[in-house]
Automatic annotation (TrEMBL):
Organism of origin: Tistlia consotensis USBA 355
A molecular function (GO) term: oxidoreductase activity
One Pfam entry name: adh_short
Keyword list, A-Z: Oxidoreductase
Keyword Oxidoreductase: yes
Name by which UniProt lists this protein: NAD(P)-dependent dehydrogenase, short-chain alcohol dehydrogenase family
Ketoreductase domain residues: 7-199
SMART domains attached to this UniProt entry: PKS_KR (SM00822)
Membrane-spanning ranges: none
InterPro entries named in the record: KR_dom, NAD(P)-bd_dom_sf, Sc_DH/Rdtase_CS, SDR_fam
Matches recorded under PANTHER family: 17-BETA-HYDROXYSTEROID DEHYDROGENASE 14-RELATED (PTHR43658:SF8), SHORT-CHAIN DEHYDROGENASE/REDUCTASE (PTHR43658)
Family per record: Belongs to the short-chain dehydrogenases/reductases (SDR) family.
């Protein structure tokens, strides 16, 4: 799919991987809307790329519906959705203070999994109602972000791993349902990506984590994530699959 002139929505677009995806899509000519809980951050990146930045809690139905409607008014129907919004709090199932509060587990599921589905359903409605873009009948592409923790979660990642495994799990039924409309659905499972979450850790912790990657022995970059997104968007044969972006890492 050639994204030039097409409407694209990126969640978590105020920083990290989402911001990198937004910049890359805009550079390719897409009309980009960035959604982020931090509206000021989304607006700052949007100003830089000539897009639209909106504050949005992706887990809230009304907020997401309003944001997608704003994006549609500004840029036309959504043709590319990239779900990058997410949280990654670490908490043991049973800690020093007793069992994990159920609300802590619920919050991660709401943001990571329900938030991804919330935007998927709304973008899919735009895409399926739009005209085909090419001879293949392609109408849109949806890319969601999972994690290698979906396969190899560590201690303290029960909620996070469950949310990311859920994103992978909903991909196949979504891809099968939307295929007849010419809408492709893919998932990327990143390893250690150099986002503010990791780069704010002490340097010795960063170095130790980076050494766990077979090659290259460093964190991945948000731009490398964005590059993979663009490969998926541009290749019409890519659908219903999860691609690991982790340098061959398998979490201990």
């Amino acid at each position: 799919m050639d994204v030039k002139g097409l409407g694209a929505i990126v969640t978590g677009g105020g920083s990290g991987m989402g911001a990198a995806v937004g910049r890359t899509l805009a550079a390719a000519g897409a009309k980009v809307t960035l959604l982020d809980l931090n509206g000021e951050a989304a607006e700052a990146v949007a100003k830089e790329i000539g897009g639209l930045g909106l504050a949005c809690d992706v887990s809230d139905a009304a907020a997401a519906e309003a944001a997608v409607a704003r994006a549609r008014e500004a840029h036309g129907p959504c043709r590319v959705l990239v779900n990058c919004a997410g949280i990654a709090p670490a908490k043991r199932i049973v800690g020093k203070e007793g069992p994990m509060p159920l609300e802590a587990f619920k919050k991660v599921i709401e943001v990571n999994l329900i938030g991804s589905f919330n935007l998927l359903r709304l973008a899919a409605a735009d895409m399926t109602a739009a005209e085909p873009l090419n001879a293949d009948g392609e109408r849109g592409v949806i890319v969601s972000t999972a994690s290698i923790a979906a396969f190899e979660g560590q201690v303290g990642q029960a909620a996070y791993s469950a949310s990311k495994a859920g994103i992978i799990g909903m991909m196949t039924p979504a891809a099968r349902e939307l295929a007849r409309f010419g809408v492709r659905v893919m998932t990327i499972a990143p390893g250690l990506i150099g986002t503010p979450l990791l780069l704010n850790m002490p340097q010795d912790v960063q170095d130790n984590l980076a050494q766990q990657t077979p090659f290259p022995k460093r964190f991945g970059t948000p731009q490398e994530f964005a590059s993979l997104v663009m490969t998926i968007v541009g290749n019409p044969m890519m659908s219903n699959d999860t691609i690991r972006l982790d340098g061959g890492m398998r979490m201990q």
